[in-house]
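User: Is it possible to get a 3D structure for a protein together with its bound compound? The compound here is adenosine-5-diphosphoribose. I've pasted both below.
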Amino acid sequence: MLKEVARLIKKSKRGVVLTGAGISAESGVPTFRGQDGLWKQYRPEELATLNAFLADPGLVWEWYNWRRELISQVKPNPGHYALCEFRNWFEDFTLITQNVDGLHRQAGLEDILELHGNINLNICVGCRRTDASVTAIDPADIAVCKHCGEKLRPGVVWFGEMLPQDVIRESFKKAESADIFFSVGTSALVHPAAALPVAAKQNGAVLVEINPDRTPLTALADYYFAAKSGELLPQLVAAVKEEAGG
Ligand code: APR
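Assistant: Yes, that's possible. Here is the predicted structure of the complex:
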C-alpha cells in the first residue's frame, strides 16, 4: 500500500493534509477523545466554551495555563517533520490543522491553515483583538484588553464558536481541488473540519487516512493505514524517495 500511495503522490499536483491531535500524541500532547484523552478527564462544556469562560474565567485560565505549560515542554515528533517533506512533492501543498499546539510551525511548516486558532495567542473576549504584549495570564488577576477593557482569553476556537471564516473558506477551496488528501490523527468527528476530507473525496481526490483507530472516515478512504503517524509518515517519505529513485 505504501508503494501505491507513493506512486499516486508522484502523479499528484495538489496535495492537502488535515491533522488532528493524534499527530501530536507521540510528542506527549494528550488527545481529546483517545484512551488518555482530555475529554475523558474534563467536561469540554466546563472549560472550552465561551459560557464556561464568562462563568469562571479563572478556572478556564488555570486549565489553559496547564496546557500551555505542557506544550511548552514538548517537541515536534517524526510525523511533524515528515510532513515538511510533503512541500517538496506537490506544486501546491496545503497543511490544515485542528491543533492549537504550534508543533507544525516548530517543525518548520510556516504556511499553515489553523482552523481552531493557537493556544499561545491571547485575544480580547470583547473586541477579539490580539494582545501580543501579554504572555502569562494570572487566573486570579486576568489581564484586560488595552482597547476595550474586557478580559483576555486564549486565542482558540471554543465549542459553539465560528471558525475564522477566511481560514475555513480557503480550507474547503484547497480540499475541493486536491488530487490527494491525507487525514492524519483525527477522529473525524468535529465539524466543519470533518467535512474537508469528504469534500475532497467528492471532488475526485484520493483519500488516505492514517490513524491507529478506525473513524467514521475510514470506510470512505481509498487507503487506510492503521498506524501511528510518527511511524507511518517517515515510512511514506522513504517510499516516495525510493519511487523517485532518490
Ligand atoms: N498517530 C495518529 N493518530 C493517533 C495517534 C498517533 N500516534 N494517537 C492517537 N491517534 C488518533 C486517535 O485514534 C483519534 O482518532 O488521533 C485521533 C485524535 O482524535 P481527537 O482526540 O478527537 O482529536 P481531534 O480529532 O483533533 O479533535 C478535533 O475536537 O475537542 C476538539 O478542538 C478540539 O481540535 C479538536 C477537535
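Strands lie at 14-19, 92-97, 112-114, 117-124, 152-156, 180-184, 206-210, 223-225. The radius of gyration is 19 Å.
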